[in-house]
Specification:
The protein has about 475 residues and is an all-alpha fold. It is about 85% helix and about 0% strand. It has 18 helices and no strands. Helix 2 crosses helix 11 and helix 11 packs antiparallel against helix 18. The radius of gyration is 23 Å and the shape is globular. It starts with a helix and ends with a helix. This is O-antigen/teichoic acid export membrane protein. Keywords: Cell membrane, Coiled coil, Membrane, Transmembrane, Transmembrane helix. It is found in: Cell membrane.
């Protein structure tokens, strides 16, 4: 059927409006993620608030010393891949829409990349993630002998409990990558809600019966239930995956799809490596102070410090929520700029749209953040009394310092997400590695002098330096 010029123009306008409407809901999607992350953080706060009442301050300190390392392993082996998946899924969706417009204009019937809609390369990614998760589990078991010091005195069962959680994390991480790439942000937020709610529900009986081991096992339960919900949403409500079993592909199409799948998998894995290293380094940097305090001062002092650290991280949830929806939007805006300008250079024409996304995200973050920061600074001691019944000048001062650190790091998170979205994933990695080295040196130097406050000061200084550097580079690259 011949497409007239007027029909083509109307169809093009309609499709471009659809693309625009699907991308400009940054505030709406951020609102969903902020609400779900706020709920999740409050539930996570309840999770950690209950732990000292069940296993004591020292048990709480041990958990606070183990979980950062466990999270680091999970991120490196599992959670670093989904952001790269989201980027490629978002770009392919945008590319498909633009190609359909071009097809109507030229009356083409065969486009090679049209097979991308039938090619479910994401499931090949899942296979690799499950394999990596078992490698991570084996690594977790060996941590006792790698870390040494006070960590070597902990029972082996703690490390087995950590290892169990890693394969479960692969499922929930993969499903979130799919949902994020398809901009199913509201559905994505539900997995966070279920995961953290499950942790609290199962924490009480497991910790009461099994102590620290039970508290660690409740994390595996949360990963498992959140992952099952993510899989249910994907296969139930996203047509591309819902119709997987009913697809009938010819032998020639299957060969072509395998080639496409292998190509995309390689691209995703290559792109995911610096993201995984960045996220791993970032997670390690956030709680490097706890690891040093646990090693140098012991579980009890680390438990006291953990109270301040836990509360201060409430300020970071807003940037984490916004960054989840920022990456795919910046990636899409970059992809469209390249398509519209017919450019093969992926490092030019990032466009004012991507820069505006960053500016809006920073503005939204600080509008919400600054009033809460003021409350935390003025009422630090009262918040600690109300939360954990603790009244200690060192803990209060640590909370104030860590609150400023969390606020500063929100700038790093949004700037790093912007750089990842336009293809500069290695830059945040180099900067965060610098932060880890600097933070380690400062912790070793300041903790013996100032105690737990030294860990807080080390975190603030290193966070400020890397945040300023990353923000300046992001502004330069987005222009």
């Amino acid at each position: 059927m011949k497409i007239t010029k007027n029909q083509y123009s109307k169809n093009k306008l309609k499709r471009l409006k659809q693309i625009k409407n699907s991308e400009d809901n940054l505030f709406k999607d951020s609102f969903y993620m902020i609400l779900s992350n706020l709920y999740s953080k409050l539930i996570l706060y309840l999770f950690f608030w209950l732990i000292p009442f069940i296993v004591g301050t020292e048990g709480f300190g041990i958990i606070r010393g183990l979980l950062p390392i466990a999270d680091t392993i999970v991120i490196f082996f599992c959670s670093g891949i989904p952001p790269a998946m989201a980027k490629f899924i978002s770009e392919n969706k945008s590319k498909t829409q633009l190609e359909k417009i071009q097809q109507e204009k030229n009356d083409f019937k065969n486009l090679n990349d049209a097979n991308n809609e039938n090619n479910l390369w994401e499931f090949d990614i899942l296979k690799y993630m499950v394999l990596f998760s078992f490698v991570g589990a084996l690594f977790a078991i060996s941590l006792k002998y790698i870390l040494g010091g006070d960590y070597s005195t902990l029972p082996d069962i703690y490390y087995y409990a950590i290892a169990l959680s890693i394969p479960f994390s692969a499922i929930i991480s993969w499903s979130r990558g799919i949902l994020q790439g398809n901009l199913k942000i509201r559905q994505l937020s539900l997995t966070w809600v279920l995961e953290h709610t499950s942790k609290v529900i199962f924490l009480i009986p497991l910790a009461l019966f099994f102590g620290v081991t039970g508290a660690l096992l409740s994390i595996s339960v949360g990963y498992l239930l959140g992952g099952l919900l993510g899989l249910y949403i994907i296969f139930k409500y996203i047509p591309r995956y819902k119709n997987k079993k009913s697809e009938i592909i010819s032998t020639s199409d299957l060969k072509l799809n395998n080639e496409i799948s292998n190509t995309l998998v390689r691209k995703v894995m290559i792109y995911a490596l610096p993201i995984a290293l960045t996220a791993t380094s970032y997670r390690l940097l956030n709680d490097l102070d706890s690891i040093f305090i646990m090693s140098m001062l012991g579980g009890y002092d680390n438990g006291l410090y953990g109270y301040a650290s836990l509360i201060s991280k409430l300020l970071f949830l807003f940037a984490a929520s916004i960054s989840t929806v920022l990456i795919p939007r910046i990636a899409k805006s970059n992809s469209e700029n390249l398509n519209e300008n017919n450019s093969k250079d992926s490092k030019i024409l990032k466009g004012s749209k991507a820069l505006n996304y960053l500016k809006k995200s920073i503005l939204l973050n600080f509008i919400i953040l600054l009033p809460l920061l003021t409350i935390f600074v003025i009422f630090a001691n009262d918040i600690l009394k109300l939360s954990f019944g603790v009244s200690n000048i060192d803990v209060s001062n640590s909370l104030i310092i860590l609150s400023f650190s969390a606020s500063v790091m929100s700038m790093y998170t949004l700037s790093a997400s912007s750089l990842q979205g336009i293809g500069y994933a290695k830059i945040p990695l180099y900067i965060i590695i610098l932060g880890i080295v600097l933070n380690s040196i400062l912790n070793i130097s300041l903790i013996p002098i100032y105690g737990i406050m030294g860990g807080a000061m080390a975190t603030l200084i290193s966070s400020s330096i890397i945040s300023i550097i990353t923000f300046i580079i992001a502004l330069k690259k987005l222009r």
